[in-house]
Design brief:
The protein is an alpha/beta fold. It contains eight helices and 17 strands. It comes from Furfurilactobacillus milii.
Amino acid sequence: MKVLIVDDEPLARNELEYLLKQNSLVDQVSQAESISQALAQLLTTPSDLVFLDISLNNENGFDLANKLDQLANPPLVVVATAYDDYAVRAFNINAVDYVLKPFEQQRINQALSRVDEVLQLREEANPVAKTKPRKQLGMISITENEKTRVLKQGDILAGFVENGELILTTKDGRFHTHQTLSWLMTRLSEDQFMQVHRSIVVNITAISEVEPWFNHTYQIKLTNGDKVPVSRSFVKSMKDRLNM
């Protein structure tokens, strides 16, 4: 997920950028302090999401929100402000969430989860995305401790993010890298791998069992004995892929 922070306060922008980068859903964060600067960035580097402050020096963040629909690929909006009296107007611009300063990691994570759900629904409804070419099964190169290791995709059982690191579980052990899960998924064969959680992707051929878990979720058991959760938002796609 590519995120643009629009706020006239440098400290607030930097604080929010730090919190965003702690979440595995976020691949890239950029900043803008004014409406003109934000529009210029969005025209050259499209973003999936804008964290938008409302009071921007002599400008109003809602003026930017009203211009976003003119973009070819309008980003989603999360209003991020110190004031709680803009909620109705935020609803009118279809903001996904409304976050109050001072920011907290848990609240930012919650907002990103909501945005991720909307982005997934968008992708499912996009016929172009559905017909995009499938990636072929091949090799994955990762760098760990200044060494580049080449792995066969077929040997990868699962990939997941833990404490800011991407970990690949293979038949021969675990390998760590500072790449993101999104980076991994752009390189994996879509015919053999599927995402089951916002931070987990698994090799379909490595699944040995699927069992119900708490709160209408599931748990997958892999051929090496590892167990991974399937979050509610991925249950339907998992059932479709496994013909359940």
